C-alpha cells in the first residue's frame, strides 16, 4: 500500500502566501467544527501579508471574495492601524454593502451568548494628582467602534481657525 498526499493544485507550494492559501482552501471545504477559527486566523494572516507588501488591491479583493462580516471588521481594524486610508474606505463600503444585502435577505444574526470573563484591573498612570474625566460627546457614543470620527461643521470651522492662527504665527 502507498499513501498519496492530496493537496490543492497551487503553483508555488514553497511560498508562505501559497501555504496560507492552501490552508484556506482546505479548511473552507472541510465540514469540521473546529476549522472556523483556523480559517479566520489564516484569512487575516493572508490579508496582513498583502497589506505589509503594499498590495492593497489584492488585500481588498481577498476580503471581498470571502465576504465574511467578522473578517471585514478585523481587516478594517488592521488596515486602520497601518494607516491605509483608501483601503479602509473600500472596506467600509464593502461592509455597508454586505450589511444591506443581509438586511434585504431578511437574515438576522442571533445574539451571541455572553461569557463571563474576569478582566484584570489596570490603573491608568497620570502625571497630575487630580485626574479630570471629560465626558464624551453624544456623537462618539452613537458611533460604532470602527467608524471614523465625524466632525461637525462648527468643529471644522474652529479647527480651521486654530490651524490658520498657528500658520500665521509660525
From TrEMBL:
GO CC terms, sorted: nuclear replication fork
Domain WDHD1/CFT4 helical bundle stretches: 25-98
GO molecular function: chromatin binding
Biological processes annotated in GO: DNA repair; DNA-templated DNA replication; mitotic cell cycle
Sequence segments annotated as region (Disordered): 129-149
This protein's name: WDHD1/CFT4 helical bundle domain-containing protein
Lineage of the organism: Eukaryota, Metazoa, Ecdysozoa, Arthropoda, Hexapoda
Amino acid at each position: 500500500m502507498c499513501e498519496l498526499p492530496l493537496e490543492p493544485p497551487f503553483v508555488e507550494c514553497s511560498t508562505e502566501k501559497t501555504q496560507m492559501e492552501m490552508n484556506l482552501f482546505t479548511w473552507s471545504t472541510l465540514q469540521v467544527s473546529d476549522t472556523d477559527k483556523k480559517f479566520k486566523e489564516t484569512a487575516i494572516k493572508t490579508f496582513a501579508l498583502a497589506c505589509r507588501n503594499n498590495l492593497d488591491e489584492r488585500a481588498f479583493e481577498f476580503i471581498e471574495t470571502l465576504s465574511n462580516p467578522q473578517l471585514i471588521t478585523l481587516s478594517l481594524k488592521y488596515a486602520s492601524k497601518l494607516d491605509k486610508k483608501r483601503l479602509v474606505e473600500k472596506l467600509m463600503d464593502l461592509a455597508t454593502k454586505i450589511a444591506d444585502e443581509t438586511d434585504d435577505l431578511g437574515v438576522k444574526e442571533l445574539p451571541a451568548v455572553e461569557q463571563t470573563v474576569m478582566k484584570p484591573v489596570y490603573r491608568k498612570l497620570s502625571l497630575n494628582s487630580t485626574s479630570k474625566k471629560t465626558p464624551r460627546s453624544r456623537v462618539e457614543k452613537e458611533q460604532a467602534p470602527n467608524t471614523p470620527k465625524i466632525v461637525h461643521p462648527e468643529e471644522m470651522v474652529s479647527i480651521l481657525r486654530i490651524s490658520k492662527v498657528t500658520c500665521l504665527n509660525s
